Amino acid sequence: MTFRMTARVHGRLDAEFTVAPGETVAVLGPNGAGKSTLLAAAAGLVKPHGGSIRLGDKVLFAHDGGRQHWVPPHLRGVALLAQEALLFPHLSVLDNVAFAPRSAGEPRARSRETARRWLAEVDALDLAGRRPGQLSGGQAQRVAVARALAADPELLLLDEPMAALDIHAAPQLRRVLKRVLARRSALIVTHDVLDALMLADRIVVLEKGRIVEEGPVREVLGRPRSAFAAGLAGLNLLTGTVTPDGLLVSGPGAAGGQAVSGTPDGEALAGEPGVAAFPPSAVSVFLELPHGSPRNCLPVAITELEPHAGRIRVHAGELAADITPAASAELGLEPGTQVFFVVKSAEVQLYGA
Ligand SMILES: Nc1ncnc2c1ncn2[C@@H]1O[C@H](COP(=O)(O)OP(=O)(O)OP(=O)(O)O)[C@@H](O)[C@H]1O
């Protein structure tokens, strides 16, 4: 069943999107972008000031002039999984998971049977007799997933479910989620591009409460149009106006006002807004302007140097180059050094914004 949401929460959110039946949508964006507000509005924990929220034929929220329609959280058919498992401490794991089917009227024995099925689904059947206080963070979170699913929600909402886990527990939960989210309608807020890659069909990028980019995961990461998505994809991104030969970079950034040539992909029309994307590994760093070859030479000032996967990542504002430690030492690079970032036109992907 399709989930449709148009929600305005003053100063926090102004967004419209849908989740198709069986689709998992990852919501990404910088801190304070409004991701949690979006989930809270879907769950019924925050009341929008305008818009409408529908799950199939059911109207969960509507604000039409003076009249308001509002369905409380427990009647929405949605389940919210938070960063913390929030299990009932006085109940066993089994009874935590049996809680929703029991509340929905299933007899005790049947509700426990349902709970066992969901615990098996999240690889936690062996934990059935424990109390929440006897679980690790990862175990508790898997039980919380089972508890959410046992309520048979039509839409599952996940708010950074891996955020509070250590690096060993996160991969196991991610594998469990990959299994249970398949063919299930879900919205997952995350900071981690791996979650989007492994769990989602589509990405929505939020910035300052608004959607700046959305599309299939592969498309957004392969051809990002927003600075945030480019960062997720590990690409340098320049925005500007498409020219017959490339892109005239706009803005006050490191390459603002410069012309960049690249390889258009058919959609880039001269005069229209466009972007140029290239990986830091395609950028060479020179102290002097190199001669000859048809390359882009961007004069920039280094802002920061950091180790990155066995190389040195050289930052110049929003641009980055990856070079070997030997090359960095030989060039004597440090913050403030004026250099040229050089990238071959063939390595620069150009497309419409
Ligand atoms: N209860 C609240 N009342 C008023 N404003 C709030 C409330 N909670 C959050 N905000 C503000 O709303 C905006 C969006 O916050 P939100 O928590 O939704 O962002 P987020 O994308 O989830 O951020 P993060 O990634 O840091 O969790 C922020 O400016 C925040 O300060």
From TrEMBL:
Keywords (A to Z) from UniProt: ATP-binding, Molybdenum, Nucleotide-binding, Transport
Domain ABC transporter stretches: 1-233
Any one Pfam family match given in the protein's UniProt record, by short name: ABC_tran
SMART domains on file: AAA
GO BP terms in the entry: molybdate ion transport
Keyword check for Nucleotide-binding: yes
Molecular function (Gene Ontology), one example: ATP binding
Residues of the Mop domain: 291-352
UniProt cross-references to PROSITE patterns, sorted A to Z: ABC_TRANSPORTER_1 (PS00211), ABC_TRANSPORTER_2 (PS50893), MOP (PS51866)
InterPro entries membership: AAA+_ATPase, ABC_SmlMolc_Importer, ABC_transporter-like_ATP-bd, ABC_transporter-like_CS, Mo/tungstate-bd_C_term_dom, Mop_domain, P-loop_NTPase, Transp-assoc_OB_typ1
Full protein name: Molybdate transport system ATP-binding protein
Organism of this sequence: Arthrobacter cupressi
